[in-house]
Design goal:
It is flat and about 95 Å long. It has 14 helices and no strands. Helix 1 (about 10-40) crosses helix 13, helix 3 crosses helix 7 (about 165-195) and helix 7 (about 165-195) runs antiparallel to helix 10 (about 225-240). Helix content is about 75%, strand content about 0%. It is mainly α and about 325 residues long.
Length: about 325
């Protein structure tokens, strides 16, 4: 008879009880809306107050085809990718640089706690506050940026800077970088602090400089944390909504229109095309899932994968040998 640890069954039930609130909240506020969104993407649901739903029996994927062929959606997707890449690359470079600087014992940075709080601060400011702040900075005819440009002679009179597509998009890119590099830095610092100090001490004894230590020790050992930041940035970047919506609402000339803003406008303005908004949501869901899977595959631990493959092959060989032995014994 198998022995059981005393009190194991008695305490295990409390774990299930404590998980019930999360399970209920997940089912109601996450799983159900996701499944419902996927379903209405195949229906004709549209119009404010409409409750009856009919599936598109003639062409089940009509909404998806309409969305994918829409010039507005294609423009929104291009804008989203450009804005995400343009803010993600400098965000990661700056976060890596700061994380390496703060965790390098040879740097001996004083007041690290204060620096980390200040760098992380933009992440806890609400998007509405930041959007209003930067709208004021670039205000016309009176605004700090216009005042500085006139004072230093770059322009003769105030201009509407935010009517320029390049300026509006650049401001959104800057805001996204400024808001999130501190959070990325904290995540990377936590990963670096998880590396055994003995490895860094050995590298220092062997004469490795800071650059060599960073590229040959730090980066390989935080691959999992880098993967986490890549995937979370991918999800957040391709779902970018609050700053483009609150700052310029996709203007000027749809220069800051993102896919999430496109979905919002499809669902909650004009004809209230819930079906097309749902279809666009599922298209973005699939795109994000595929890109995340590619990231996981590219950044996988190849040595570990090779070792697991060898173990599986050995297990199969052992099972075949065991099966063959039983067959011979029965004969």
């Amino acid at each position: 008879m198998k022995s059981k640890k005393p009190g194991y069954d008695r305490y295990a039930k409390y774990g299930y009880l404590f998980s019930i609130p999360f399970v209920i909240a997940f089912l109601l506020f996450s799983l159900y809306p996701t499944v419902y969104t996927a379903v209405i993407g195949f229906t004709d649901l549209k119009g404010l107050g409409k409750t009856d739903i009919h599936f598109l029996t003639d062409d089940l994927f009509r909404n998806f085809k309409t969305v994918l062929s829409s010039p507005s959606f294609q423009l929104a997707f291009r804008n989203t990718v450009v804005i995400w890449l343009a803010n993600f690359i400098p965000q990661m470079l700056l976060a890596l640089l700061l994380a390496a600087w703060f965790t390098d014992k040879r740097s001996k940075v004083k007041g690290q706690g204060a620096f980390k709080v200040l760098l992380y601060m933009p992440n806890i400011i609400t998007a509405a506050t930041i959007a209003i702040l930067f709208s004021g900075f670039f205000g016309y005819p009176m605004g700090p940026i216009n005042d500085l440009l006139v004072r230093f002679g770059f322009i003769d009179a105030p201009i509407e800077l935010l009517r320029s597509k390049a300026v509006a998009r650049g401001v959104v890119i800057f805001i996204q970088t400024w808001m999130w590099y501190g959070s990325t830095m904290i995540t990377l610092i936590s990963g670096i602090l998880g590396i055994s100090p003995e490895i860094f001490e050995s590298a220092e004894v062997d004469g490795a400089n800071r650059v060599q230590t960073f590229f040959y020790i730090t980066l390989p050992n935080i691959k999992t944390i880098l993967l986490f930041t890549l995937v979370t940035s991918l999800i957040g970047g391709l779902n970018m909504f609050d700053i483009p919506r609150l700052f310029q609402d996709g203007k000027p000339d749809d220069a800051t229109l993102t896919t999430s803003l496109f979905i919002y406008k499809q669902a909650f303005s004009g004809s209230y095309m819930y079906n097309r908004a749902a279809a666009a949501s599922m298209v973005m869901f699939l795109i994000i899932a595929v890109l995340a899977a590619i990231m996981f595959f590219v950044m996988r631990d190849k040595d570990e994968a090779k070792l697991n493959k060898q173990i599986r092959q050995q297990q199969k060989a052992y099972m075949k040998k065991l099966k063959a032995g039983k067959e011979n014994a029965s004969c």
